[in-house]
Amino acid sequence: MPWPAEAVHRVIKAYDVRGLVGEEITDEFVADVGAAFARLMRAEGAAQVVIGHDMRDSSPSLAAAFATGVTGQGLDVVRIGLASTDQLYFASGLLNCPGAMFTASHNPAAYNGIKLCRAAALPVGADTGLNAIRNDLIGDPTDSAGSHAYDGPPGTISDRDVLSDYGAFLRSLVDTAELRPLRVAVDAGNGMAGHTAPAVLGPIDSITLLPLYFELDGSFPNHEANPLDPANLRDLQAFVRETGADIGLAFDGDADRCFVVDERGLPVSPSAVTALVAARELSREIGATVIHNVITSRAVPELVLERGGTPLRSRVGHSYIKGMMAETGAIFGGEHSAHYYFRDFFGADSGMLAALYVLAALGEQDNRPLSELASDYQRYESSGEINFTVADADAAVDAVLKSFASRIQSIDHLDGVTVDLGDDSWFNLRSSNTEPLLRLNVEGRSVEDVEAVVGEVRALIATVTAEKAGEKAESTT
């Protein structure tokens, strides 16, 4: 039976499936998503699908329902059980088969979702499969996932533990043999890094692991597993200072993103991490391509050019960057949201691999602290991502552009609007692909320059929001 189009469109987003468990995401719906995915993959020649899940209470049953949908279409299922998202990508590459990861990443406990990939972790986004799955579910034959008819035998289900293989593979990509001793504080946020960090970092002799919130708990009892929100970094910052750690690492719920805190407990910009890793990658392959998204600091393309590489700009979102990684053969890609992509890791993102690169860079220093190392890659000041809940995103953006019109040097629309104000100041305004938000990022030479732009944009958005609220109130009276 087809699913209502409105319900399907609400949960099948630009690069994943995500929604409220029990209301938007149910076992029955997920079983049909699994069947549609299996039809699409079977048409492309796949014989099996690997499935992993995070620590949320709903994840095991949803993963089981998805497996039922897949096997019902004749494809085999390999279950890897509890996993980080990048561990699932590793399994997809190791087994050379499509994969499904059950997680809602940094979203609260009431949510869950599915990240899908083809064999070798190739992305499945809106234009590369999700629209076909969506149309299959609503009974639209246009660009559907394929025929619903299948009368062969069901597929089989087997289990495989890939955690130790995953850890060994990541360590094989970064030389950590000659590092100075490092005390490494890790805030897993009760998410999957509590499962993977010991397997990856534990065997490295020079590292003393200082764990914080490693207990797997999908209710997130200590704080949300979303390090992009500064409030969720406070415990790690205090922990670093209390323990005298050389570095702090914070991961989101599915541990595919990694945020870095220096020895003073101060955050290191993900753009600085992107520049640091890019420099290391370019040192072994001069001329290679490095991808960065539209909200990454301009220091990243500047450094890539200085190191003899080719910078390439992308929209925000893992499916877009992974697609570009595959198309261009880029050696590395970074996002300001702390997603980091590696050609050596099937072109997929891995927060744990990015952490290894930063640890290697720090461990090679002769007692130089992380704060000094990071300053080599921090050329500008930035606002970080600021989110606004707005009733009319287009009206808010239009108001901002009109107000800044006389100061705009250039503007592009690759992802939202990116506005160059000259004097090394710029801002990007874009609608979220996963949440009902308008996102602002500002960069400039000084904190004062950044704060001035943020203040002006904030006031303009507040004015438009108030006007829209007034119009709505009038229309209901």
Automatic annotation (TrEMBL):
Record's keyword terms, sorted: Isomerase, Magnesium, Metal-binding, Phosphoprotein
Domain Alpha-D-phosphohexomutase alpha/beta/alpha, first and last residues per copy: 11-133, 166-265, 275-380
Molecular functions per Gene Ontology: intramolecular phosphotransferase activity; metal ion binding
Entry's Gene Ontology BP terms: carbohydrate metabolic process
Pfam families: PGM_PMM_I (PF02878), PGM_PMM_II (PF02879), PGM_PMM_III (PF02880), PGM_PMM_IV (PF00408)
SUPFAM superfamilies: Phosphoglucomutase, C-terminal domain, Phosphoglucomutase, first 3 domains
Cofactor: Mg(2+)
Keyword hit for Phosphoprotein: yes
Domain Alpha-D-phosphohexomutase C-terminal: 385-459
Coiled-coil stretches: none
Listed InterPro entries: A-D-PHexomutase_a/b/a-I, A-D-PHexomutase_a/b/a-I/II/III, A-D-PHexomutase_a/b/a-II, A-D-PHexomutase_a/b/a-III, A-D-PHexomutase_C, A-D-PHexomutase_C_sf, Alpha-D-phosphohexomutase_SF
CDD domains (UniProt xref): PMM_PGM
Extent of the signal sequence: none
Family: Belongs to the phosphohexose mutase family.
Protein name (Swiss-Prot/TrEMBL): Phosphomannomutase/phosphoglucomutase
